[in-house]
Design brief:
The chain is mostly helical. It has 15 helices and no strands. The longest helix is centred in the middle third of the chain and has 29 residues. It is globular, with a radius of gyration of 29 Å.
Length: about 250
């Protein structure tokens, strides 16, 4: 009996015939509750963020506003985008694909300014979309071996991929403006300088190593501006060879 009092039997817990086993039930209340971690995390989370995570459409729309923030104030925009940690699919669905599609559709303006046919407009629009679409993946591919070793790993992560999408999205907007307002194209052609500025500020927000930060910025500017042009030229020669023949 003495051993039973000192070391109660665990297989008789809460046995109504043995009141000594109820001591274990009282001790359980003092044990660490794993659910406390969930309560602590819930206190640290923002209810708005939780609601946004449950609503993909709302997060997509917010991702687009982050893009507008990057256009207006690049430093603050890049910082907020990095903290929010969107998924690549959300950024692509809310910013990159819609703005590239808008740039492709803007080729319709040439129906009025350049007397093109509808078939020509459809081909030009397809070429524009493909140039930006393949340009995105090509830039990421080139980043894997053209960037310095101390910075190339950043563009294998979501932040780096979203960086490229945001930079190309700004070019898509400027391209759309140049098609819709051809009378001021000389001025609009200077707008890609703002894309260079966006890249310049974004690289510093990404905390690239100071030893390679300037080289990384230069290579990214060349890739973001040059690769879509090269793809556009390639697709024009394939789908619209008569443009170069004439």
């Amino acid at each position: 009996m003495a051993t039973d009092i000192l070391y109660p039997k665990y297989n008789n817990v809460n046995d109504p015939q043995d009141p000594d086993t109820y001591v274990l039930e009282e001790d359980d209340d003092t044990l660490y509750n794993l659910d406390d971690d969930a309560d602590i995390e819930s206190d640290d989370t923002n209810p708005d963020d939780e609601q946004e995570s449950k609503s993909p459409k709302k997060r997509d729309s917010i991702a687009f506003f982050f893009f507008l923030k990057i256009l207006s104030t690049p430093v603050e925009g890049w910082k907020k985008l990095r903290r929010r940690a969107f998924k690549n699919e959300e950024v692509a669905a809310s910013c990159f694909y819609p703005l590239v599609a808008l740039a492709a559709f803007s080729e319709v303006a040439d129906l009025f300014y350049d007397n093109r046919t509808i078939s020509d407009w459809a081909v030009y629009g397809l070429v524009t979309f493909l140039a930006f679409f393949f340009g995105y993946f090509t830039i990421l591919l080139f980043c894997g071996f053209m960037l310095p070793k101390k910075s190339r790993y950043l563009f294998r992560k979501d932040n780096g991929m979203q960086f490229v999408m945001m930079a190309l999205s700004s070019l898509a907007i400027f391209y759309t403006l140049s098609n819709v307002f051809p009378m001021i194209q000389e001025v609009i052609y200077l707008l890609p300088l703002w894309t260079i500025y966006i890249i310049y500020k974004g690289v510093r927000v990404m905390r690239v190593n100071q030893d390679v930060i300037n080289m990384t910025t230069v290579i990214l500017c060349i890739l973001v501006l040059g690769v879509p042009i090269l793809w556009g030229w390639a697709f024009h020669t394939i789908f619209l060879p008569h443009v170069f023949v004439n």
